[in-house]
Specification:
Largest sheet: 6 strands, antiparallel
Helix content: 10-25%
Shape: globular
Strand content: 35-45%
Number of strands: 18
Structural class: alpha+beta
Oligomer: single chain
Number of helices: 8
Radius of gyration: 21 Å
Distance between the termini: 21 Å
Length: 305
């Protein structure tokens, strides 16, 4: 992978919390919790527009009723009516990913640009998914091998730390695992339902791929956020605090700080020549003294630009 870069906040030296590989920040202690929520937090701060359209079967042209549509990494969702029509109202302006999910069909995604005072109309066609139709039936019985693989998946997918402990996969039985050349791979027959008590959301995650080779993990998919409601003012305040903290320890916040030249709370380090980024210690200070060299953030800004 060549040289990687790691960024840490000066105010927290207890562990290496943020690793930036090829300018991609990755949060080990609370991987899933923050990685997706960052975009949701930013999404909620924009102006409002609208989108309407239809969803139909790609082969027959028949409208598809009650199809789920949502913007990836947001709490904005809707579904088609009985004649396949849908509408989103009061949407934030910007560039986002619209995801369409329906049982028996391939997951559809499309980049959508929402501009001021410019309503958007879409015609979406879904293709039947023969693999999904022939999926192995899910059973409640799982063997010890599956359970061992699930524990690995849970750790690598959700991350570790106190925040991750507040996050739980509610329907793990939809997952299937296989080992391929020493790499654990996972697929899901339905969206993962994740109870995120740390941020106050139930998350529906459409897993597209997952792989873990014992050193590096990679996964991708689409996340829909459903906010929890609470009449407890203390709980509501705690969720809001956690959400703001999640944003302020995100890659989006970091890069915005660089652009605004308000990055005094960050330090940047580069792997020393010959060091393998995949073999770092989980403890920042060990890496700082043996494997990393400090670089100026102004140099990092020049590189990003």
């Amino acid at each position: 992978m060549g040289h990687g870069r790691c960024i840490r906040k000066i105010t927290d030296l207890s562990q290496w919390q943020i690793a930036l590989i090829w300018f991609r920040i990755f949060f080990a202690p609370m991987r899933f919790l923050i990685f997706f929520f960052v975009f949701l937090y930013a999404f909620s701060r924009c102006n409002a527009q609208s989108i309407e359209g239809t969803v139909s079967d790609a082969q027959t042209g028949e409208p598809l009723p009650f199809v789920a549509l949502f913007f990836d990494n947001t709490a904005i969702a809707t579904e088609t009516d009985s004649v396949g029509k849908f509408v989103f109202q009061k949407l934030p302006s910007g560039d986002y990913t619209l995801v369409v999910r329906f049982v028996g069909y391939e997951v559809f995604s499309q980049k959508v640009s929402i501009k001021n005072n410019a309503p958007l109309s879409l015609k979406i066609s879904l293709k039947a998914d023969p693999k999904q139709l022939n999926e192995v039936r899910v059973t409640a019985k799982r063997d010890t091998k599956w359970l061992k693989n699930f524990r690995v998946f849970e750790r690598e997918f959700l991350g570790e730390g106190e925040a991750a402990k507040s996050c739980k996969i509610l329907n793990p039985w939809v997952l299937a695992f296989e080992m391929e050349n020493g790499t654990l791979k996972a697929k899901s027959s339905a969206s993962l339902e994740i109870d995120n008590q740390y941020l106050g959301y139930k998350i529906y995650y459409t897993l597209q791929y997952f792989s873990y080779d014992g050193a590096q993990v990679g996964f991708g998919g689409y996340a829909q956020f459903d906010p929890y409601l609470s009449h407890d003012p203390i709980q509501k305040k705690q969720w809001q605090t956690n959400r703001e903290n999640a944003y302020q320890t995100s890659d989006l916040y970091f890069f915005r700080s660089l652009i605004k030249q308000q990055h005094s709370q960050f330090e940047a380090f580069l792997d020393k020549a010959g060091e393998d980024p995949t073999r770092r210690s989980p403890y920042f200070h060990q890496n700082q003294s043996k494997k990393l060299q400090k670089i100026a953030l102004d140099d990092l800004v020049d590189t990003v630009n």
